[in-house]
Amino acid sequence: MTHSIDFHAFRIHNDATGYRGGMETMNTDALSAGEILVKVAYSSVNYKDALAGTGKGKILRQYPLNGGVDASGVVVASADPSFKEGDHVLCTGSGLSETRDGGYGEYIRLPSQWAIALPKGLNLRESMILGTAGFTAALSLLRMEHNLQTPALGPIAVTGASGGVGMLAIDIFSRAGYAVHAISGKADHFDFLRTLGAAECIDRHQLAFSGKPMDSARFGGALDNVGGSMLAGLLPLIVPYGNVAVCGNAGGIAFDSTVMPFIIRGVSVLGIASAGTARDLRDQVWQHLASDWKPHHLDRIATREITLEQLPEVFGRMLEGDSFGRTLVRVGKV
Ligand SMILES: NC(=O)c1ccc[n+]([C@@H]2O[C@H](COP(=O)([O-])OP(=O)(O)OC[C@H]3O[C@@H](n4cnc5c(N)ncnc54)[C@H](OP(=O)(O)O)[C@@H]3O)[C@@H](O)[C@H]2O)c1
Fold this sequence. Notes:
This protein is of the alpha/beta class. The protein has two domains: 6-118 and 297-330, Quinone Oxidoreductase, Chain A, domain 1 (Alpha-Beta Complex); 132-274, 3-Layer(aba) Sandwich (Rossmann fold). The chain has helices spanning 47-54, 124-146, 164-175, 190-195, 228-234, 260-265, 279-290, 298-301, 311-319, and strands at 6-15, 18-27, 36-45, 65-66, 70-78, 88-92, 107-110, 116-117, 156-159, 180-184, 198-203, 219-224, 238-246, 268-271, 302-306, 326-330. The strands form three sheets. Strands 3, 5, 6, 7, 8, 15 and 16 form a seven-stranded mixed β-sheet that branches. The chain has a six-stranded parallel β-sheet with strand order 11-10-9-12-13-14, with helices on both faces. The chain has a three-stranded antiparallel β-sheet with strand order 2-1-4. NADP nicotinamide-adenine-dinucleotide phosphate binds at residues 46-48, 132-133, 136, 160-166, 184-186, 204, 225-226, 247-251, 272-275, 318, 321, 323.
């Protein structure tokens, strides 16, 4: 490719000067390799981006890199004939801000293997309101249904319900016919969560798990963003053959449990690792997100729209557990 363009990016370094992320000017020649050069329109802020941007979690496996695990934009040049100039594409995970430059730059190079042609039914902005968070919620539903989850098994508990994955999961699971019981620490936002489709809201500060290996089953399944004692507390409450999609660790990584929910009720724990999802599954998830599982309330779930310069402020609030919905990052005009 002959394009050599100076542009702005939120770039993360870790060297003798220390760990730091901030705005700088760089050239497209310095971007990680890939067949497609994309002018980025939107990115988003995920919990992982906050960890990477602040150094509070080890996300990047090499330095320096542009942050941002999500990107959508327009192809400027392509060495792969399956993409051409002007095509709209998106990418989530797939090594962005881990092993290659991510979406927090006005340009990104993508390996064509991981670039997804924007599916009909979504625009560039909507695709990044979804981003990794929406992809993760929908991947959870897909994996649960592959393992025979149905609405008839009972309500789905969604934890961390006021966060990005949480709100999108409320909307997506209720669209797919499930009753969603939202578990959140933000009781003042329960009315809002109900407008997204939550059938019930449960205050996580009032939850008193019995600590018994088995308890009365009350959830058909769960999508857990919190981990730790929340995950341990949910497992004894799942009905026979229900599934728990384990997505996050906002509340902790270690959990104490017993084998009883698994050997007496056949409960399944499904690991969700969105960043490394295989291409065929990735395509299926995006097709659902653009059609039958497309959330009805995307504009309300996108509670904030920021520029790259405003990222540090959002990272701080997110790591304090203060998230509310999705933060969309407006990167450049396309
Ligand atoms: N596995 C994957 O592929 C994948 C993909 C995306 C995200 N994730 C993970 O999923 C989680 C959610 O991500 P996100 O982007 O939605 O983050 P987010 O927007 O910051 O939402 C996290 C939510 O978790 C709850 N929370 C925060 N701190 C907590 C604590 N100490 N104890 C209990 N609950 C707490 C809060 O919800 P309430 O106040 O409503 O309870 C918060 O809004 C993160 O752990 C993230 O790393 C995993």
